[in-house]
TrEMBL record:
Domain Mur ligase N-terminal catalytic: 25-93
Domain Mur ligase C-terminal residues, every copy: 334-454
Protein name per its UniProtKB record: UDP-N-acetylmuramoyl-tripeptide--D-alanyl-D-alanine ligase
Pathway: Cell wall biogenesis; peptidoglycan biosynthesis
GO cellular component assignments: cytoplasm
Pfam families listed in its UniProt record: Mur_ligase, Mur_ligase_C, Mur_ligase_M
Domain named Mur ligase central: residues: 106-295
Gene for this chain: murF
Amino acid sequence: MRLWTSAEAAAATGGRATRDWSADGVSIDTRSLAPGDLFVALKDVRDGHDFVAQALEKGAAAALVSRLPEGVDEDAPLLIVDDVLTALQALGRAGRARTRAQVVGVTGSVGKTSAKEMLRVVFGGQGMVHAAEKSFNNHWGVPLTLARMPADADFAVIEIGMNHPGEIAPLSRMARPHAALITTVAPAHLAAFDSVEGIAHEKASIFEGLEPGGLAVVNADLATTPILSASAQRAGARLETFGEGENADHRLREVAVGETTTTARAVSGGAEVLLKVATPGRHFAMNALGVLAVASGVGADPARALCDLATWTPPEGRGTRETLVLDTVDDHLTIDLIDDAFNANPASMSAALDMLASAKPQDGKGRVSRGRRIAILGDMLELGREEARMHADLADLPAMDKVAVVHCVGPLMRHLHDALPEDRRGAWAETAEELATRAHTLADAGDIVLVKGSKSSRVSLVVDAIRKLGHRRATEGEGDR
């Protein structure tokens, strides 16, 4: 499907097309580029201009550049602009301006990617949905998502993140959402903020981009909820809240966390509802309630939304659970792996440990007679002056009482390692690479293993090493596909 013509892209960016072309998609990476994509030569760790020739060889329809790249002919299909990032932002604004979609913006210290993926599932059952890929939520991710949006989409979900003050508002004004969801506010990126209240003000700035009369959905259970609500009211938004408190507009009442599902009773839209997601985790039920509030507020059918939420599982690295068979002969010798290795802060770490605590290991399977709950935890980054204390404080979480062994990765997690009781203190390694070489010593058949840490801690390497100990058991029906 044609997404941009050279004339449309030139008009949007003020650039000059060297010849006529049309693109079916937009890409910033030659590794994932599909034939027919417009390749955007952004400057990041590497200068994208160095890859233009390769992109064209792989079938790119054209390249968005600020100069003629080396090894590229003057008559190659190019869109030449003054600055590539500025042009991508202009293309994103043009993509947003021409769409008919109901646009939802999502932010939060924890859970924004999961909430975005829930909304993708909900809206996907009720029309054409366009949503951000991976965690494309920053100064280039948001405009890239908007530039990729088909004009005839019915719904769009834009994830908006931040690392420093002043980032969210301009991205929201670019996305111009009809509804905005703040999942929660928690200590994250405190290296760039003086307080959690400062983080709340930054998250609340998503409401500055709301369309007139737009919907603001905020967590009602936070100490910073008044900051979020006041910001929504200043923006002239319709305000709805979700949470467990009596005053929440959408209220979570009872939550039951099972081995593979989470079920909750809630009140939403004045009616009692049964809320379910196909993964364990109390925090997922809370996010699903916020998603239901958003979906209903932009005209989606809440009954169908509930049915589709029941099929939702988290994306890879966000709490996905899988069973690994350790023996090719005896498929009862297994480890359950919870992969939550993409991001971490104190709030998300607490939620992940709660999820581990609710899981049931299996006795009598391995060398250790009793199945164990094992946590492999990597550094939580960008927490500022109190980072050492925040790591050590994890030892006092109630969920830790049900964790048999905690292995730690990174210099910051040394503080947790030292704070743990000796009987729960597992291995400590300076780097994930070092711990990954010992993967075969970290767990046994019957154990449930959680791996979590900030992305830069690279604990995903430990996940990969544990996966190599066996093979993933197919889920029901998987072999029929």
